[in-house]
Write a structure and sequence with these properties.
six-stranded mixed sheet, YaeQ_sf, YaeQ family protein, alpha/beta, YaeQ, 11 strands, five-stranded mixed sheet
């Protein structure tokens, strides 16, 4: 019998001072049985870092949501689609292979990868030359210590505040907070 995803609910208040975006998001995260709390929380952090694009790229008339991710390799971890159904932003978390990333670049206006874990630098050195062909792609390195701290915020029901100031995301639940400053590895058109 196949294991089912575990459902997490998050009420996320975003104050993105860098981009002038302030909104509340009621989110449902389905954590695949093979997904860790760390990876799930990186997905949530990636959504918070890119929520401003809903207003900037779709004038508020679009959908920002979690994709099937691990359940379907042809679906992003997070996507932003405008009212016509066009995929504006495709976001992957982890250390994807080059071919799916390049395929995503053909399906979306912009593709963003948030690489994490201690092996992310090794992954990047091995894949870097294969991914520099497209200007649609940005790759960010999430510091290992920060990503591991994010896992500590994971609960089945979460009330979280996200503040983005000078490129730093601070994500907290009222009792503790984690600061996350991603390191750019490759920055495409933005």
């Amino acid at each position: 019998m196949a294991l089912k995803s575990t459902i997490f609910k998050a009420h996320l208040q975003i104050a993105d001072i860098d981009h002038g975006y302030y909104a509340d998001h009621a989110l449902t995260l389905a954590r695949h049985p093979s997904e860790t709390d760390e990876r799930m929380m990186i997905r949530l952090a990636a959504l918070a870092l890119n929520a401003w694009r809903l207003q900037a790229e779709c004038n508020g008339d679009g959908t920002l949501a979690f994709g099937a991710g691990l359940s379907d390799p042809d679906d992003p971890d997070i996507w932003l689609r405008d009212f016509t159904g066009r995929t504006r932003v495709w976001i992957e978390v982890g250390q994807p292979e080059d071919k799916p990333v390049l395929k995503a670049c053909s399906k979306a206006d912009r593709v963003i990868v948030y690489a994490f874990a201690s092996s992310a630098d090794i992954w990047w050195r091995g894949i870097q030359t294969k991914l520099t062909r497209t200007d649609k792609l940005s790759v960010w390195r999430v510091p290992t210590e920060s990503s591991q701290e994010l896992a500590g915020l994971a609960e089945r029901s979460m009330q979280l505040q996200a503040t983005v100031l000078e490129g730093v995301l601070t994500l907290g639940n009222g009792e503790r907070s984690v600061s996350l400053e991603c390191v750019p590895l490759l920055v495409g058109a933005d």
